[in-house]
């Protein structure tokens, strides 16, 4: 990776990924793109930026060529809960954008990354210690997009030799840019509400376990996988990665170590609860560890400390 173009650079992952890649590879060697230009003062504007709708294949190609990118990181996507509200739009954006980005990578011989998700699993997938290779019959549009995307990326590798790489992210927890429209978002909101109000009403029920990971570990995983020697990789896409399997009660207990009177109650949203229940409780990340040294640093308590102190600083509390 020397010249990197990112789509969805203003999203939850893209914002931090752009900053980290610029730190490592040089400010001018990382081109951020997103549907809309962010507000002045956004860190994404500290280096090159272009407005790009990922369904515009011609513009994506033109921008990549002009920038002389050797790598494309395709992060633009609609998350699970939003995708359920408008499934046809989700299909067109998630699949259309991915196909366009893969075509750009094929034409210009670029290395390629895009994230899949725990959403690529479904209700008849084994729930605990879910293996990387297993039954995938997701029941959400987002999940259907993610499985199709995994297959498409493998196809571009086998059929055209494009150096595609990808992971299945769990819920990602971060304080720089809040996520939007995901099922795992509660695990971010809970920290913001803990600092702002000392209490949180969860739309995900107690006892509902999902995999999660702190954003710093997610960004490190992307870079590690992209820099891994190709001959070490037996798989290319759809690596399970995770740092913890947690439910709302566990997050609350961890927050109470810092904010003892933190209160948690529930007002369960049936749509997002059903999505959560269709996903695994805990996935097995051993292949990522074995093949390219995936090694997350944050557990629940260290992440909680980091989240609370960063949010307090941001909000002057
Ligand atoms: N965080 C995502 C979501 O909840 C899962 O990939 O939609």
From TrEMBL:
Q: Which residues form a coiled coil?
A: none
Q: Tell me which InterPro entries the record gives.
A: Epimerase_deHydtase, NAD(P)-bd_dom_sf, NAD(P)_epim/dehydratase
Signal sequence coordinates: none
**Domain NAD-dependent epimerase/dehydratase: from-to ranges:** 4-240
The record's listing under Gene3D superfamilies reads: NAD(P)-binding Rossmann-like Domain
Q: Which GO terms describe its biological process?
A: L-threonine catabolic process
Q: Which domain of life is it from?
A: Bacteria
Identify a single GO molecular function assigned to this protein: L-threonine 3-dehydrogenase activity
The family note in this entry says: Belongs to the NAD(P)-dependent epimerase/dehydratase family.
Annotated protein name in UniProt: L-threonine 3-dehydrogenase
